[in-house]
Amino acid sequence: AKFSVGLTGGIGSGKTTVADMFAKLGASVIDTDAIAHQLSAAGGIAITPIIAEFGADFIDASGAMDRARMRALVFSDSDARHRLESILHPLIRTETARAAEQAEGPYLIFVVPLLIESGNWKRRVERILAVDCDEQVQVQRVMQRNAMSESQVRAIMATQASRQQRLQAADDVIVNDGDPAALLPQVAQLHTRYLSFARLL
Ligand code: ATP
């Protein structure tokens, strides 16, 4: 298997922004959120099991999972959340493994929002890269992007690992607190390091 990095960070920390930079430099980026999205989009392979488990009420007119409705359910009902996860997680594993096999880059970057929270993912990657930013900055970004209130964003953050836990688990950290121009030098330096790890593997 290729050398692989797990890229994680809290909501709004800048994972996608950073992952796009690695992709431009030539890394093979596999975004588990995007894969999860495809699985539950119209025609996705999770739709049939979702209907079987939750009923057709959770599918919208286009044939995709009704995200707002499902989010509302699983946010308040942890049993439902576990049932949804037991549908999606095995499918995500299969699809990410397939994407990894087809990847042509010198190494892999798996973007996994809840990597620290998942023993499985921690075992699947050689290195953990956390995108770090101040919690207040995180809140501001997500409020702006998703038109959410501060308490809504804080409620999501409360379900994720803390900044402290993430920094403790990380091998590498990218700081994304301010100027977006500060990102590329950090990404480029890590890319060079990951290329040499990949050559040693
Ligand atoms: P999520 O977990 O919610 O998908 P994410 O960690 O992938 O988020 P991004 O989507 O990369 O984070 O960034 C969140 C938002 O903040 C985006 O709208 C992005 O354009 C913006 N953003 C990211 N980094 C910066 C920065 N350094 N300065 C200003 N805005 C930024």
Description:
This protein is globular. It has a five-stranded parallel beta sheet, with helices on both faces. The mean pLDDT is 95. It has two domains: 1-27 and 106-201, Rossmann fold; 39-104, no CATH class. It has 201 residues and is of the alpha/beta class. It has helices at residues 15-25, 32-39, 47-54, 67-76, 78-102, 119-124, 135-146, 150-158, 163-169, 183-200, and strands at residues 4-8, 28-31, 108-111, 127-132, 172-175. The chain starts with a strand and ends with a helix. Adenosine-5'-triphosphate binds at residues 9, 11-17, 113, 141, 145, 176, 180.
Task: Give keywords.
P-loop_NTPase; 201 residues; Rossmann fold; 2 domains; alpha/beta; coenzyme a biosynthesis; binds adenosine-5'-triphosphate; globular; Dephospho-CoA kinase; 5-stranded parallel beta sheet; transferase
Given helix and strand content, the structural type is alpha/beta
How much helix, percentage-wise, in residues? 55-70%
Number of helices: 10
The first-level CATH class name of the largest domain: Alpha Beta
Radius of gyration: 17 Å
Count of individual beta strands: 5
Strand content: 5-15%
Blueprint (SSEs and pairs):
Layout: E1 4-8, H1 15-25, E2 28-31, H2 32-39, H3 47-54, H4 67-76, H5 78-102, E3 108-111, H6 119-124, E4 127-132, H7 135-146, H8 150-158, H9 163-169, E5 172-175, H10 183-200
Parallel strand pairs: 1-3, 1-4, 2-3, 4-5
Helix pairs in contact: 1-10, 2-5, 4-5
This protein binds adenosine-5'-triphosphate.
Residues 9, 11-17, 113, 141, 145, 176, 180 line the site of adenosine-5'-triphosphate (ATP).
Family: Belongs to the CoaE family.
Organism: Collimonas arenae
GO biological process, one term: coenzyme A biosynthetic process
